[in-house]
Amino acid sequence: MDHSLRHRISAQVDPEMRGAPGLSRFNKVVVLAILVLVVIGVMETEVHVLRRFGEAMAAMKLVLFTFFAAEYALRLWVAPLNPRNRGMLSYALKPAALLDLAVLITLLMPFLGFEGAVFRLLQLTRLVRLARIGRYSRAMNLVVEAIRSRDTELAISAGLAFSLMLGASTLLYVVEGGIQPEAFGSIPRAMWWAVATLTTVGYGDVVPVTALGRVLAAVTALCGIGIIALPTGVLAGAFSEAIRRAREERSRGHPD
Amino acid sequence: MDHSLRHRISAQVDPEMRGAPGLSRFNKVVVLAILVLVVIGVMETEVHVLRRFGEAMAAMKLVLFTFFAAEYALRLWVAPLNPRNRGMLSYALKPAALLDLAVLITLLMPFLGFEGAVFRLLQLTRLVRLARIGRYSRAMNLVVEAIRSRDTELAISAGLAFSLMLGASTLLYVVEGGIQPEAFGSIPRAMWWAVATLTTVGYGDVVPVTALGRVLAAVTALCGIGIIALPTGVLAGAFSEAIRRAREERSRGHPD
Amino acid sequence: MDHSLRHRISAQVDPEMRGAPGLSRFNKVVVLAILVLVVIGVMETEVHVLRRFGEAMAAMKLVLFTFFAAEYALRLWVAPLNPRNRGMLSYALKPAALLDLAVLITLLMPFLGFEGAVFRLLQLTRLVRLARIGRYSRAMNLVVEAIRSRDTELAISAGLAFSLMLGASTLLYVVEGGIQPEAFGSIPRAMWWAVATLTTVGYGDVVPVTALGRVLAAVTALCGIGIIALPTGVLAGAFSEAIRRAREERSRGHPD
Amino acid sequence: MDHSLRHRISAQVDPEMRGAPGLSRFNKVVVLAILVLVVIGVMETEVHVLRRFGEAMAAMKLVLFTFFAAEYALRLWVAPLNPRNRGMLSYALKPAALLDLAVLITLLMPFLGFEGAVFRLLQLTRLVRLARIGRYSRAMNLVVEAIRSRDTELAISAGLAFSLMLGASTLLYVVEGGIQPEAFGSIPRAMWWAVATLTTVGYGDVVPVTALGRVLAAVTALCGIGIIALPTGVLAGAFSEAIRRAREERSRGHPD
């Protein structure tokens, strides 16, 4: 019988086995559970939160562990129904499934300390895998296509940014290296300032103090506008193009 | 008689009952009065201003209270003329009218302190309601349409930004958590730095001090350019498209 | 005789009387002289520079005064040849000519102190007047047209930015006003922080210290990306449109 | 014989003599060697690194010197095969070849100190020369064409930015010059603040403290958004146009 329990579960658990577009109700719960787990993983690193909500979070983690363990078992059980998997074991040995298993194991080990929390963030990759459906998939394709279609121009922008960074930090090292050895005493040190300036972050923990240094820093900061404008302009052009092409294809009757 | 006083007042008071495009003279005064009230609400929180102009501002508030009370009464009176409202009481119970009434009441209570001032800022929503006419309406539609047409791409950008933020703060927490416990002692703490860096705000109150931390921060700052370039590029493409479509529709003879 | 000295000087001095496109040789010298004067005006406010190069700068100013006085006299002399001016006196009373005269007078009064230097910066407007020719004129039209064609959208962006600024500073005033009265003790004070954050400048002289304040600040900083992305996207779309329209008109054979 | 060793080496060494697109295997090694040399040049300015890896870096430099000397000799040897060079000596006297020779010489002089390291960064220009092939060349043309096609608009943006900078620093000098003489005591000093604000870098080492100064600074910071949005919008429009034109030319059958 085609609509047996196993098939129905498969349609709920495996996004590829679902006929309708979008996420199944079960996978929406999975997404929510992952987000809760990530929030817990982030929050339990903070002592103040841990002291107050530590027990509640531990209980929540136990619930989530049970849920993810059951979900993992279900996925194993229905894996053979998906023609892309060659049986249960083959599915279990896929990198994605192994990662899920590893995350599951770290949940059981509270003595892992923050390494566990850090590791658990890897489960966010699961969200990406789940997002590869429906309109998110199309939008992601548009974004990826736009970036990829201009990857050489973006690489040139990056090369230009890198050269400017190198040039600016070399000049500041020569000009201010003797006066502020802690901040500009070597090119790698001066790079910390150069990155902060060219990206317009501007922490201000390290700033030139001589007149010449400030003139050079001002020129660098003005170049920083180009460093932002160039990739933005390239991406904007690529998105205009990608959107128009997608619209043209749709109007020609291509289903997408 | 069609052009009775009540009908003429309705055309002045209710933007929907006005035949001509744009705001009526009366509603331009209302817009001005709201702006004055907001400025007073902002300024009276500052002790130095209050000491000097406190009495003038209190007098001004009394004048504005009288004006808004009269305006509210007029709107109630002419409400039945607008077919969208089913009588005076039905209009009075609309959320927008209730909000206006509540703002009116807070004006009378000087002992409310800053809560009153804060609450009064809600009257800015009135400006949005009044702006929903004429060319502002068309321009707002263009902006809203451009954003909405690419909401999935913008959500992906936001998801990417959030993941980068999470990744960067986790790494800095691991690298600098032990050295600067106040700033990087937990992932939520490190997030304060990560947001400031990825948005290129760069307060500089919290900066990494180790070599590895600075390398990671530099990479994060460079990623921040993408965080700005991606949504800007998406929006720019969407605006190009929306502007072209609007022009095509106009040239096809569609009145808009 | 058509090519009398006065006519030849008129073609050199008055950009509108010049047959060929671009600036005449004489006006290129004027541009250079204005730039030198501005640099001197900027530099003489700095004591260290004044002490060292004060005499050289005073001599230079005398030379420039003589030059601008002669240039002003020449312009008066050839003014009647331009049909747009109705005689010498009518030209002399134009606001632009009066401004040039005023700048000339301030050059003679060294006792004016910095007010003189500041006033002299007004001569930069002369550069704009001279730039209104040839390819700069076309490019300026493109820039102005692109901005003007989307002025309502830009006004909406500005309104949104202003509302966000008001909302953020009100919230921070409520949350941190009691803890940091100097920085967040009133809404106008909190606005200083809000502007620095929303524009992504991020001086860092004023930052929230409570957890709730930092969460609100993080949200504000993330909104700041939109504040930059929205007008940039609108302008990018407008420039795409303006460039395409200019190209289409050129290909249709319209001379521009 | 056409495929003699010298011809084969020429095809490997001289990008112009290579039939296939892209870099030859030999030149990929050259690119890598240049990058290694740049990294060493950067790193050896840092005392901590020098103390630890100084000997390894010196050995690496010797290896690289040998490699670049051999490469230089090979290029001289095969130069006559390229019809663009008129013999070996003519090639050796080209500025590019002279620069390569000079970099080679600095490698031999460890006593040059940081001047040597700085000078060696000039070898990065070699990368640009090597990059002028294949898809990088096409992408660079697109970037250069987009920037050049709108150079007047970008010059206007720069002029506007410069005027704003001058105006803002003059105003702040007038308003805060007396209170913070170190930071705003002259227009050139105030410019340091103005650049940091208009580019949204915002170091925060220098900030206005008076109410009027802060209002002016807030207006300046808001203008800074336009300073970024204007060139970005111009570039985005230019890239849209350049991409479309390139696509149209390709679809018309023009080989590029």
Helix-strand category of chain A: mainly alpha
What is the fold-level CATH name, i.e. the topology of the largest domain in chain A?
Four Helix Bundle (Hemerythrin (Met), subunit A)
**Order of helical and strand elements of chain A:** HHHHHHHHHHHH
Oligomer class: homotetramer
Count of discrete structural domains of chain A: 2
Number of helices of chain A: 12
Q: How large a portion of the residues of chain A is in β-strands, by DSSP E? A: under 5%
Which protein chains are joined by the largest interface, and how many residues does each one contribute?
Answer: A-B, 50 and 48 residues
Q: CATH top level of the largest domain in chain A? A: Mainly Alpha
Number of strands of chain A: 0
Rg calculated over all Cα atoms of chain A:
26 Å
Taken from the alpha-carbon principal axes, the silhouette of chain A is: flat
Sheet with most strands of chain A? none
Termini of chain A, distance in Å? 32 Å
CATH superfamily of the largest domain in chain A, by name, is Voltage-gated potassium channels. Chain C
Helix content of chain A: over 70%
